[in-house]
Amino acid sequence: MSEKNQISQVWQQFVDKWLELAKQNGFPEITADENWPSPCEFQQQEKTFWQPVKQDETLGFENVEHAIGYKLNDEFKTFFTLYYADNFDAKHSDGELQYLQAWSKPDFERLQQNLIGHLMMKGRLKQTPTLFFAVTDEEDLNIVVDNLTGKVALEYVGKEPHQTLANSLSAFIQQTTPVISQ
């Protein structure tokens, strides 16, 4: 199975589990922001909630790759181009985390800009290029994909990765379970 198919299948399974939890326990309520709309928002009894929505347009990271001069990890690229969603809360044996996602097309563009800035910083520091996809409950501690090896690791902002968590993004996601925060 190709990396793209693997990550697509694994992420779909995670999202399906999240949707099951949301249907049982209620979808997360949000405060609608007319300046930051999303296809994820829906109204029910005068309240606004969110749910993941498959992206209906082709989004990619070609502009990021052009700006930095190298290709990004395929699993990472696929992970961010399947759904629009708010961040997903999850549990891992090492602690709680939040998977980052794009809320809308403008948010995806903001993600790309942040990623370019992050990768340029890593280059200036002569560090391994890493791709952030999740945050932990510890300030400045991110979960990243090593762009050279595809391994998932913990990394403090501005530092090298210091603890490997999985051999791939797909393998890492399989080690986590979704949580619905109300």
Most strands sheet: 7 strands, antiparallel
- Overall mean pLDDT: 95
General form: globular
Structural class determined from secondary elements: alpha+beta
CATH class: Alpha Beta
CATH topology: SMI1/KNR4-like
**Uncertain runs with pLDDT below 50, 5 residues or more?**
none
Strand order of the largest sheet: 11-10-9-8-7-6-12
The H-and-E topology, N to C, reads as: HEEEEHHEEEHEEEEHE
- Radius of gyration over C-alpha positions, nearest whole angstrom: 16 Å
Gap between N and C termini, in Å? 36 Å
Number of domains: 1
Count of extended strands: 12
Features:
alpha+beta, SMI1/KNR4-like, 7-stranded antiparallel beta sheet, 3-stranded antiparallel beta sheet, 34% helix, globular
Brief characterization of the structure:
The chain has helices at 3-25, 62-68, 74-79, 105-124, 169-174, and strands at 29-30, 41-44, 47-50, 53-54, 83-84, 88-92, 95-99, 130-136, 141-146, 152-156, 163-166, 177-179. It is an alpha+beta fold. 28% of the residues are buried.
Commentary on this structure:
The protein is an alpha+beta fold and 182 residues long. It has a single domain (3-179), classed as 3-Layer(aba) Sandwich (SMI1/KNR4-like), CATH 3.40.1580. It has helices at 3-25, 62-68, 74-79, 105-124, 169-174; strands at 29-30, 41-44, 47-50, 53-54, 83-84, 88-92, 95-99, 130-136, 141-146, 152-156, 163-166, 177-179. The strands form 3 sheets. A 7-stranded antiparallel β-sheet has the order 11-10-9-8-7-6-12. The chain has a 3-stranded antiparallel β-sheet with strand order 1-3-2, with no helix packed on it. The protein has a two-stranded antiparallel sheet with strand order 4-5. A hairpin with a 5-residue loop joins strand 9 (141-146) and strand 10. Helix 2 (62-68) packs parallel to helix 4. The chain is globular. It starts with a helix and ends with a strand. The mean pLDDT is 95.
